[in-house]
Amino acid sequence: MINLIYSRLIAKWISLIKFGKLQFRFSGFPVPITGAFVVGIGLSLLFAACSPAPSNSPTATAPNPNATVASNSAPSKGKVVRFGYQKSTVLLRTKGVLEKRLTPEGVTVEWTEFQAGPQLLEALNVGSIDIGPVGESPPIFAQAAGAALTYVAGIVPSPAGSAVLVPQNSPIQKITELKGKKIAFQKGSSAHLLLVNVLEKAGLKYTDIQPISLPPADARAAFVKGSVDAWVIWDPFYAAAEEGIKARPLIDGTGINKQGGYYLAARKFATEQPETLKAILEEVQKLEAWSKDHREEVASTLAPVLGIDIATLKKATNRRSFGIVPITDELLAEQQKVADLYYQLKLIPKQLNIKDATLTKEEYAKIALKS
Q1: pLDDT tens, position by position, 39-65
Q2: Which of 197, 189, 254 has its CA nearest to residue 215?
Q3: H or E element: which one contains 314?
Q4: Which of 204, 235, 252 is the last residue of a domain?
Q5: Residue 181 has what DSSP assignment?
Q6: Could you tell me if 152 and 235 lie in one domain?
Q7: How far is 286 from 296, CA to CA, in rounded Å?
Q8: By residue range, what is the domain housing residue 268?
Q9: How far is CA 288 from the centre of its chain?
Q10: How many CB atoms lie within 10 A of CB 93?
Q11: What is the CATH classification number for the domain harbouring 239?
Q12: What is the pLDDT of residue 271?
Protein backbone atom coordinates (compact mmCIF):
# COMPACT_ATOMS: atom_id res chain seq x y z
CA MET A 1 0.00 0.00 0.00
CA ILE A 2 2.83 2.40 0.94
CA ASN A 3 4.58 1.62 -2.35
CA LEU A 4 1.39 2.38 -4.27
CA ILE A 5 0.93 5.70 -2.48
CA TYR A 6 4.58 6.57 -2.97
CA SER A 7 4.48 5.75 -6.71
CA ARG A 8 1.41 7.93 -7.17
CA LEU A 9 3.08 10.76 -5.29
CA ILE A 10 6.15 10.53 -7.49
CA ALA A 11 3.99 10.58 -10.63
CA LYS A 12 2.16 13.65 -9.33
CA TRP A 13 5.48 15.22 -8.34
CA ILE A 14 6.84 14.77 -11.87
CA SER A 15 3.70 16.23 -13.47
CA LEU A 16 3.90 19.25 -11.19
CA ILE A 17 7.55 19.75 -12.05
CA LYS A 18 6.68 19.68 -15.76
CA PHE A 19 3.92 22.17 -15.13
CA GLY A 20 6.22 24.37 -13.11
CA LYS A 21 8.52 24.73 -16.10
CA LEU A 22 5.63 25.80 -18.29
CA GLN A 23 3.34 27.77 -16.02
CA PHE A 24 4.34 31.24 -17.25
CA ARG A 25 4.52 30.51 -20.97
CA PHE A 26 1.65 32.92 -21.73
CA SER A 27 3.20 35.63 -19.57
CA GLY A 28 6.65 35.26 -21.08
CA PHE A 29 8.37 34.35 -17.81
CA PRO A 30 9.67 30.75 -17.85
CA VAL A 31 10.39 29.47 -14.34
CA PRO A 32 13.22 26.93 -14.02
CA ILE A 33 12.95 24.31 -11.28
CA THR A 34 16.25 23.04 -9.97
CA GLY A 35 18.13 21.40 -7.16
CA ALA A 36 16.88 21.99 -3.64
CA PHE A 37 13.56 23.31 -4.85
CA VAL A 38 12.81 20.02 -6.62
CA VAL A 39 13.72 18.10 -3.47
CA GLY A 40 11.51 20.46 -1.47
CA ILE A 41 8.56 19.71 -3.76
CA GLY A 42 9.03 15.98 -3.30
CA LEU A 43 9.27 16.25 0.49
CA SER A 44 6.31 18.63 0.68
CA LEU A 45 4.14 16.22 -1.27
CA LEU A 46 5.27 13.24 0.83
CA PHE A 47 4.63 14.89 4.19
CA ALA A 48 1.35 16.38 2.99
CA ALA A 49 0.15 12.95 1.89
CA CYS A 50 1.18 11.34 5.19
CA SER A 51 -0.46 14.00 7.36
CA PRO A 52 -4.21 13.81 8.02
CA ALA A 53 -6.12 16.83 6.67
CA PRO A 54 -8.54 18.61 9.03
CA SER A 55 -12.08 17.39 8.48
CA ASN A 56 -13.41 20.92 8.02
CA SER A 57 -10.83 21.96 5.45
CA PRO A 58 -10.89 20.18 2.06
CA THR A 59 -8.01 22.13 0.58
CA ALA A 60 -4.56 20.58 0.48
CA THR A 61 -1.49 22.75 0.12
CA ALA A 62 0.50 22.22 -3.08
CA PRO A 63 4.09 23.37 -3.68
CA ASN A 64 3.18 25.32 -6.80
CA PRO A 65 2.44 28.91 -5.71
CA ASN A 66 -0.10 29.28 -8.50
CA ALA A 67 -2.13 26.18 -7.74
CA THR A 68 -3.51 24.16 -4.83
CA VAL A 69 -4.91 20.68 -5.28
CA ALA A 70 -7.73 19.08 -3.29
CA SER A 71 -10.42 16.43 -3.52
CA ASN A 72 -13.85 16.66 -1.91
CA SER A 73 -14.89 13.20 -3.10
CA ALA A 74 -14.28 9.85 -1.48
CA PRO A 75 -11.60 7.76 -3.26
CA SER A 76 -13.02 5.99 -6.27
CA LYS A 77 -11.83 3.31 -8.67
CA GLY A 78 -13.93 4.90 -11.41
CA LYS A 79 -13.44 8.06 -13.42
CA VAL A 80 -11.79 11.22 -12.12
CA VAL A 81 -12.69 14.75 -13.21
CA ARG A 82 -9.92 17.28 -12.56
CA PHE A 83 -11.49 20.70 -12.14
CA GLY A 84 -9.50 23.93 -12.26
CA TYR A 85 -10.92 27.02 -10.58
CA GLN A 86 -10.07 30.51 -9.34
CA LYS A 87 -11.10 32.45 -6.25
CA SER A 88 -13.96 33.97 -8.21
CA THR A 89 -15.46 30.50 -8.73
CA VAL A 90 -14.56 28.84 -5.41
CA LEU A 91 -18.26 28.54 -4.45
CA LEU A 92 -18.62 25.58 -6.80
CA ARG A 93 -16.08 23.62 -4.81
CA THR A 94 -17.27 24.89 -1.44
CA LYS A 95 -20.90 23.83 -1.98
CA GLY A 96 -19.91 20.33 -3.09
CA VAL A 97 -22.60 20.16 -5.78
CA LEU A 98 -20.45 18.28 -8.28
CA GLU A 99 -19.59 15.60 -5.74
CA LYS A 100 -23.25 15.11 -4.86
CA ARG A 101 -24.07 14.63 -8.54
CA LEU A 102 -21.05 12.64 -9.71
CA THR A 103 -19.96 10.46 -6.78
CA PRO A 104 -23.01 8.14 -7.07
CA GLU A 105 -22.01 7.65 -10.69
CA GLY A 106 -18.52 6.53 -9.65
CA VAL A 107 -16.83 9.80 -10.61
CA THR A 108 -14.34 11.48 -8.26
CA VAL A 109 -13.76 15.24 -8.43
CA GLU A 110 -10.27 16.68 -7.90
CA TRP A 111 -9.86 20.45 -7.52
CA THR A 112 -6.89 22.67 -8.36
CA GLU A 113 -6.91 26.40 -7.60
CA PHE A 114 -5.14 28.92 -9.84
CA GLN A 115 -4.43 32.62 -9.44
CA ALA A 116 -5.71 33.45 -12.92
CA GLY A 117 -7.03 32.07 -16.19
CA PRO A 118 -3.75 31.83 -18.13
CA GLN A 119 -2.24 29.53 -15.50
CA LEU A 120 -5.42 27.45 -15.43
CA LEU A 121 -5.37 26.93 -19.19
CA GLU A 122 -1.66 26.13 -19.14
CA ALA A 123 -2.53 23.29 -16.78
CA LEU A 124 -5.32 22.18 -19.10
CA ASN A 125 -2.91 22.27 -22.03
CA VAL A 126 -0.37 19.97 -20.34
CA GLY A 127 -3.10 17.55 -19.19
CA SER A 128 -3.18 18.44 -15.48
CA ILE A 129 -6.89 19.34 -15.46
CA ASP A 130 -9.93 18.56 -17.60
CA ILE A 131 -12.13 21.63 -17.29
CA GLY A 132 -12.32 25.09 -15.76
CA PRO A 133 -13.79 28.62 -16.08
CA VAL A 134 -11.77 31.63 -17.27
CA GLY A 135 -12.31 35.09 -18.74
CA GLU A 136 -12.61 35.79 -22.45
CA SER A 137 -8.90 36.44 -23.08
CA PRO A 138 -7.07 33.35 -21.69
CA PRO A 139 -8.45 30.90 -24.30
CA ILE A 140 -7.30 33.18 -27.10
CA PHE A 141 -3.72 33.25 -25.85
CA ALA A 142 -3.90 29.51 -25.14
CA GLN A 143 -5.19 28.73 -28.64
CA ALA A 144 -2.43 30.87 -30.11
CA ALA A 145 0.05 28.76 -28.14
CA GLY A 146 -1.39 25.56 -29.64
CA ALA A 147 -3.48 24.34 -26.71
CA ALA A 148 -5.98 21.55 -27.47
CA LEU A 149 -8.97 23.09 -25.74
CA THR A 150 -12.59 23.66 -26.60
CA TYR A 151 -15.34 26.08 -25.56
CA VAL A 152 -18.15 24.25 -23.74
CA ALA A 153 -20.21 27.08 -22.15
CA GLY A 154 -20.31 30.85 -21.89
CA ILE A 155 -20.33 32.86 -18.66
CA VAL A 156 -22.60 35.88 -18.27
CA PRO A 157 -20.48 39.07 -18.18
CA SER A 158 -19.99 41.08 -14.95
CA PRO A 159 -18.58 44.37 -16.28
CA ALA A 160 -18.73 46.17 -12.93
CA GLY A 161 -16.60 43.44 -11.34
CA SER A 162 -13.34 44.59 -12.95
CA ALA A 163 -11.58 47.94 -12.79
CA VAL A 164 -8.46 50.00 -13.30
CA LEU A 165 -7.23 50.91 -9.80
CA VAL A 166 -4.87 53.63 -8.61
CA PRO A 167 -3.62 54.36 -5.07
CA GLN A 168 -5.97 56.49 -2.98
CA ASN A 169 -3.58 59.47 -2.99
CA SER A 170 -2.55 59.10 -6.64
CA PRO A 171 -2.60 62.33 -8.67
CA ILE A 172 -4.03 60.34 -11.61
CA GLN A 173 -7.67 61.33 -12.08
CA LYS A 174 -8.46 60.23 -15.65
CA ILE A 175 -7.42 57.55 -18.12
CA THR A 176 -5.41 59.90 -20.36
CA GLU A 177 -3.07 60.48 -17.41
CA LEU A 178 -2.00 56.83 -17.60
CA LYS A 179 0.22 57.69 -20.56
CA GLY A 180 3.78 56.62 -19.82
CA LYS A 181 2.74 54.96 -16.55
CA LYS A 182 3.47 51.45 -15.29
CA ILE A 183 0.28 49.39 -15.23
CA ALA A 184 0.11 45.93 -13.66
CA PHE A 185 -2.23 43.21 -14.92
CA GLN A 186 -2.21 39.51 -15.68
CA LYS A 187 -1.22 39.13 -19.33
CA GLY A 188 -3.77 37.18 -21.34
CA SER A 189 -6.54 37.68 -18.77
CA SER A 190 -9.83 39.57 -18.82
CA ALA A 191 -7.96 42.45 -17.16
CA HIS A 192 -5.73 42.62 -20.24
CA LEU A 193 -8.73 43.16 -22.50
CA LEU A 194 -10.24 45.75 -20.15
CA LEU A 195 -6.99 47.71 -20.24
CA VAL A 196 -6.81 47.60 -24.03
CA ASN A 197 -10.43 48.76 -24.36
CA VAL A 198 -10.08 51.49 -21.73
CA LEU A 199 -6.98 52.91 -23.43
CA GLU A 200 -8.68 52.86 -26.83
CA LYS A 201 -11.71 54.65 -25.42
CA ALA A 202 -9.44 57.38 -24.03
CA GLY A 203 -7.60 57.77 -27.33
CA LEU A 204 -4.42 56.10 -26.10
CA LYS A 205 -2.47 53.25 -27.68
CA TYR A 206 -1.26 50.16 -25.91
CA THR A 207 2.28 51.32 -26.65
CA ASP A 208 1.59 54.54 -24.71
CA ILE A 209 1.80 52.72 -21.36
CA GLN A 210 4.37 50.48 -19.67
CA PRO A 211 2.63 47.08 -19.30
CA ILE A 212 3.77 45.04 -16.28
CA SER A 213 2.52 41.45 -16.44
CA LEU A 214 2.01 40.03 -12.94
CA PRO A 215 -0.41 37.50 -11.40
CA PRO A 216 -2.88 39.01 -8.89
CA ALA A 217 -0.92 38.41 -5.67
CA ASP A 218 2.31 39.82 -7.10
CA ALA A 219 0.46 42.71 -8.74
CA ARG A 220 -1.11 43.68 -5.42
CA ALA A 221 2.28 43.60 -3.71
CA ALA A 222 3.78 45.83 -6.43
CA PHE A 223 0.78 48.16 -6.18
CA VAL A 224 1.11 48.50 -2.40
CA LYS A 225 4.87 49.04 -2.68
CA GLY A 226 4.37 51.76 -5.27
CA SER A 227 6.31 49.92 -7.98
CA VAL A 228 3.41 50.40 -10.41
CA ASP A 229 1.10 53.35 -10.99
CA ALA A 230 -2.10 51.41 -11.63
CA TRP A 231 -3.49 47.89 -11.40
CA VAL A 232 -6.18 46.28 -13.57
CA ILE A 233 -7.95 43.51 -11.68
CA TRP A 234 -11.21 41.64 -11.12
CA ASP A 235 -13.26 40.59 -8.06
CA PRO A 236 -12.74 39.48 -5.37
CA PHE A 237 -9.22 40.97 -5.65
CA TYR A 238 -10.77 44.25 -6.77
CA ALA A 239 -13.11 44.52 -3.77
CA ALA A 240 -10.35 43.42 -1.40
CA ALA A 241 -8.08 46.18 -2.73
CA GLU A 242 -10.84 48.77 -2.32
CA GLU A 243 -11.53 47.77 1.27
CA GLY A 244 -8.11 46.63 2.43
CA ILE A 245 -5.68 49.13 0.89
CA LYS A 246 -8.18 51.83 -0.10
CA ALA A 247 -7.41 51.53 -3.80
CA ARG A 248 -9.41 53.97 -5.90
CA PRO A 249 -11.18 52.75 -9.07
CA LEU A 250 -10.33 55.04 -11.97
CA ILE A 251 -12.85 53.28 -14.21
CA ASP A 252 -14.61 49.91 -14.19
CA GLY A 253 -15.82 47.75 -17.04
CA THR A 254 -19.37 49.09 -17.16
CA GLY A 255 -20.23 49.94 -20.75
CA ILE A 256 -16.86 48.58 -21.90
CA ASN A 257 -16.71 44.88 -21.09
CA LYS A 258 -19.34 43.16 -23.21
CA GLN A 259 -17.79 39.72 -23.05
CA GLY A 260 -18.14 37.28 -20.19
CA GLY A 261 -15.90 34.30 -19.68
CA TYR A 262 -16.08 30.67 -20.72
CA TYR A 263 -15.91 27.16 -19.43
CA LEU A 264 -13.11 25.46 -21.35
CA ALA A 265 -12.45 21.73 -21.48
CA ALA A 266 -9.77 19.51 -22.90
CA ARG A 267 -11.03 18.30 -26.27
CA LYS A 268 -10.46 14.67 -25.31
CA PHE A 269 -12.54 15.06 -22.16
CA ALA A 270 -15.33 16.91 -23.98
CA THR A 271 -15.64 14.34 -26.77
CA GLU A 272 -15.09 11.15 -24.74
CA GLN A 273 -17.10 12.01 -21.60
CA PRO A 274 -20.06 14.12 -22.78
CA GLU A 275 -22.42 12.70 -20.13
CA THR A 276 -20.09 13.74 -17.31
CA LEU A 277 -19.49 17.13 -18.91
CA LYS A 278 -23.22 17.75 -19.29
CA ALA A 279 -23.78 16.82 -15.64
CA ILE A 280 -21.10 19.31 -14.59
CA LEU A 281 -22.58 22.13 -16.65
CA GLU A 282 -26.08 21.39 -15.35
CA GLU A 283 -24.86 21.65 -11.75
CA VAL A 284 -23.01 24.88 -12.51
CA GLN A 285 -26.18 26.28 -14.08
CA LYS A 286 -28.25 25.36 -11.02
CA LEU A 287 -25.72 26.89 -8.62
CA GLU A 288 -25.55 30.09 -10.66
CA ALA A 289 -29.35 30.41 -10.55
CA TRP A 290 -29.35 29.81 -6.78
CA SER A 291 -26.53 32.32 -6.24
CA LYS A 292 -28.39 35.06 -8.09
CA ASP A 293 -31.22 34.84 -5.54
CA HIS A 294 -29.03 34.21 -2.45
CA ARG A 295 -26.26 36.80 -2.63
CA GLU A 296 -26.07 37.29 1.15
CA GLU A 297 -25.56 33.56 1.67
CA VAL A 298 -22.96 33.44 -1.11
CA ALA A 299 -20.96 36.16 0.63
CA SER A 300 -21.24 34.59 4.09
CA THR A 301 -20.22 31.18 2.69
CA LEU A 302 -17.18 32.49 0.85
CA ALA A 303 -15.86 34.90 3.51
CA PRO A 304 -14.22 32.23 5.74
CA VAL A 305 -13.13 30.13 2.75
CA LEU A 306 -11.30 33.03 1.08
CA GLY A 307 -10.18 34.69 4.30
CA ILE A 308 -11.87 37.93 3.22
CA ASP A 309 -14.24 39.89 5.45
CA ILE A 310 -17.93 39.58 4.69
CA ALA A 311 -18.37 43.27 3.80
CA THR A 312 -15.80 42.92 1.04
CA LEU A 313 -17.42 39.72 -0.25
CA LYS A 314 -20.84 41.37 -0.25
CA LYS A 315 -19.49 44.18 -2.40
CA ALA A 316 -18.01 41.72 -4.90
CA THR A 317 -21.09 39.50 -4.93
CA ASN A 318 -23.54 42.36 -5.38
CA ARG A 319 -21.88 43.60 -8.56
CA ARG A 320 -21.57 40.16 -10.09
CA SER A 321 -23.92 38.76 -12.71
CA PHE A 322 -24.61 35.04 -12.37
CA GLY A 323 -25.35 32.54 -15.11
CA ILE A 324 -23.92 30.39 -17.89
CA VAL A 325 -25.16 30.09 -21.46
CA PRO A 326 -24.71 27.66 -24.37
CA ILE A 327 -22.06 28.29 -27.01
CA THR A 328 -23.69 30.00 -29.99
CA ASP A 329 -22.51 31.47 -33.28
CA GLU A 330 -23.20 34.95 -31.89
CA LEU A 331 -21.04 34.30 -28.83
CA LEU A 332 -18.21 32.95 -30.98
CA ALA A 333 -18.44 35.98 -33.29
CA GLU A 334 -17.84 38.28 -30.30
CA GLN A 335 -14.92 36.16 -29.20
CA GLN A 336 -13.49 36.31 -32.72
CA LYS A 337 -13.47 40.11 -32.46
CA VAL A 338 -11.37 39.87 -29.30
CA ALA A 339 -8.92 37.51 -30.98
CA ASP A 340 -8.64 39.82 -33.99
CA LEU A 341 -7.94 42.77 -31.71
CA TYR A 342 -5.12 40.96 -29.94
CA TYR A 343 -3.63 40.01 -33.30
CA GLN A 344 -3.81 43.59 -34.57
CA LEU A 345 -1.96 44.71 -31.44
CA LYS A 346 0.64 41.97 -32.08
CA LEU A 347 -0.07 40.45 -28.68
CA ILE A 348 -0.56 36.99 -30.21
CA PRO A 349 1.74 35.59 -32.91
CA LYS A 350 -0.87 34.54 -35.46
CA GLN A 351 -4.42 35.17 -36.57
CA LEU A 352 -6.90 32.73 -35.08
CA ASN A 353 -10.14 31.13 -36.12
CA ILE A 354 -12.04 30.72 -32.85
CA LYS A 355 -14.18 27.97 -34.39
CA ASP A 356 -11.09 25.77 -34.49
CA ALA A 357 -11.54 25.49 -30.71
CA THR A 358 -15.17 24.40 -30.81
CA LEU A 359 -17.12 21.16 -30.97
CA THR A 360 -19.38 20.03 -33.78
CA LYS A 361 -23.11 20.77 -33.59
CA GLU A 362 -23.71 17.10 -32.81
CA GLU A 363 -21.18 17.19 -29.98
CA TYR A 364 -22.69 20.38 -28.54
CA ALA A 365 -26.12 18.75 -28.67
CA LYS A 366 -24.87 16.07 -26.26
CA ILE A 367 -24.00 18.66 -23.62
CA ALA A 368 -26.81 21.13 -24.36
CA LEU A 369 -28.14 23.11 -21.40
CA LYS A 370 -31.80 23.92 -20.84
CA SER A 371 -32.51 27.62 -21.34
Answers
A1: 333 333 333 333 333 333 333 333 343
A2: 189
A3: helix 310-318
A4: 252
A5: -
A6: no
A7: 17
A8: 85-157+260-371
A9: 17
A10: 21
A11: 3.40.190.10
A12: 95
